């Protein structure tokens, strides 16, 4: 044996081991990846990560295209700004007929697509018609169901005729998809963009200059852009599906910006927030996390039970404790930064004694020695379903379970996959359910629409509310109203009723997060939840 | 030999048939409707009308038997249809993901072989020495550290703290180092111990005593005779692992943003992208069978006794 252990015999083996170590150690040349995503050579450039590939960049389709990327290249006729203000984009102005059924858009002159071709009424009609060819696919957007006719009036005037008045036409036209405009060169030969596009050609401030599926996308400024170009000259999107890797890439300096909703864990956000080298920023509320108390369940049909549950948990402590301040306790179903929602609604405050009294009054009594209230031998017991992949929902569900348990209401938790959850919501097969509204620019009209329309689960949740029919009538009147004052009054009435009924319990306002390095001097969140943030970025001079 | 290979390749047909049948059944047993999953991923509320339209578009409203027969027909012609998610031909997408996965699989396999073979040999030859202890520690670590955690640790030290290597992505050789090390760790752990045990077994064989009696040098005995026999179980293990690596290393691809097959498949599962799942199963079944065949052929080549057995059977 000993003869094997000679220097001579061990040498080749050791050489191999050393060679391997050298390969590893050879990495110490301090050179980083030199892929096409290396942005440092371009002044005024930033790199951001995104969990998924940007997709096919077809403005008229959904998956797998990412909304933020579509919004970089394609523009709407009307733009949605803070507090719901609608400003001209590709339409410099518009006229609405008195009956609210005809919208005439005066298109901005001298607008060109990124390939230099002109933007005019013909291409607007071509895009509208391509979208409307697949009405079923886009039927989720209210305007699609009421468009009767699209018409080219002249080179720079486009007319939209509706079958009935529908006030949120402009809001619907400001959403990122499907009503944005692809240049003629991008259309397939048969004109049906649902089957795909030839190339992404838009009027927006950015054009896609380099792309490698699932790896990166580089956007450069569109030299033909009609408006003021953003301060950032180049944007690189790195596709990083894992949240922890995203944070590591940011800390290493490979990323300048982390942006979005839930793109990094709460722990990671807090850790970055404490680091003086970075700036963290939270947006205005972009949506509300609510809990549906299904009134079609006989136990929840009683408003006293719903109110007791609503005021029977410490929302403030729960939201702050679980989200570390990333979300804000919500007093109303819709935050005040949407149109028509800046109204003072009476918040439901935490009051255990009142909750217990209400449950007693409703006939739900604690049996001697028992922990669960009963009425006619029936226990006060509910099932709360939550998304098992969402740690915040899970933690909140557990807190609610504990707090309501102390009141004498037993809550059983069921963690489900998102699609299964939605299925049960639609089938009205639930007691308690975490629900989210759509955010700007979809709300408040999309929210009230689902309150009145069966099939979304919300109308069903409210079915035992005593004045549901009246509520539905008010909603229909609101959506077709052409009188601004009347519409505001209707909204006030609808939102007040919903607040009083406690069938939709607001929990927290969700916010977008942005974490960035000091090379970014200013960051402004877009008002539209789905828009890209790059126009609102100002960089420090380099 | 050709007949043997031919028979093994023909065996792919029933295995693929069974695999597709099981997959088809599992997909349809699942409570998640692919049309619903598609709409949810697209941030579109799945109304009944939309669901109906999507189901029709995907062919999910046809009887199950018709759907299955249609699927089999397509597989037979290597036409896997279009992805529900991207609307692109599945086969093209799969082919585009293969280079990244193959690259990572190749380097991981090579790296683990280059480390585990010398380490395994040394651990066996110097049983209970420091090198044996070292191999044991590596084996414990490799077997017990979860891959995602190891990935994060390597990223933290080598990419963030030391700034030697990139955090993620696919680019030049530097991008390969961390994912390769992460994948190799567990392989090294297994292979080293496997080779050590096999070497120790072989050292008890009479041919080793005979060789020593003949006065052959210890190095020649070890490297030329013992290692040749002892490496057989390692080759089997590598064959199985090659199949696993080539069908995608989901966690590592996720942690290192490696644009390979594993990530693609995981996304397909989440979105119930049936054409992609079916293509993956077909591909994986074929690949595992071919890897096993490759292992058998290598073993036939290295150990003529196996070859003789095969011939005797015929």
Give a written overview of the molecule.
Chain A: One of its GO terms (cellular component) is outer membrane-bounded periplasmic space. Chain A: One of its GO terms (molecular function) is nickel cation binding. Chain A: InterPro entries: CntA-like (IPR011980), Peptide/Ni-bd (IPR030678), SBP_5 (IPR039424), SBP_5_dom (IPR000914). The complex is a heterodimer of chains A (542) and B (314). Chain A has 542 residues and is α+β, with helices and mostly antiparallel strands. Among the domains of chain A are: 71-195, Periplasmic binding protein-like II (D-Maltodextrin-Binding Protein, domain 2); 286-511, Dipeptide-binding Protein, Domain 3 (Dipeptide-binding Protein, domain 3, Roll). Chain A contains 16 helices and 21 strands. In chain A, strands 11, 12, 13, 16, 17, 18 and 19 form a seven-stranded mixed sheet that branches. Chain A has a four-stranded mixed sheet with strand order 1-10-9-8, with no helix packed on it. Chain A has a four-stranded antiparallel sheet with strand order 4-5-7-6. In chain A, a hairpin with a 3-residue loop joins strand 8 and strand 9. The longest helix of chain A is centred in the first third of the chain and has 19 residues, at 7-25. The model of chain A is unreliable at 1-11 and 20-37 (pLDDT under 50). Chain B is mainly α and 314 residues long. Chain B has two domains: 2-76; 100-313, Orthogonal Bundle (MetI-like fold). Chain B contains 16 helices and no strands. Chain B has helices spanning 2-10, 12-29, 34-41, 48-58, 64-76, 90-125, 130-144, 147-161, 173-203, 206-213, 218-230, 232-246, 250-255, 261-270, 274-302, 304-313. In chain B, helix 6 (90-125) runs antiparallel to helix 7 (130-144) and helix 6 (90-125) packs across helix 9. The mean pLDDT of chain B is 84. The chains are: A alpha+beta (542), B mainly alpha (314). At the A-B interface, helix 1, helix 6 and helix 12 of A face helix 3, helix 4, helix 6, helix 8 and helix 9 of B.
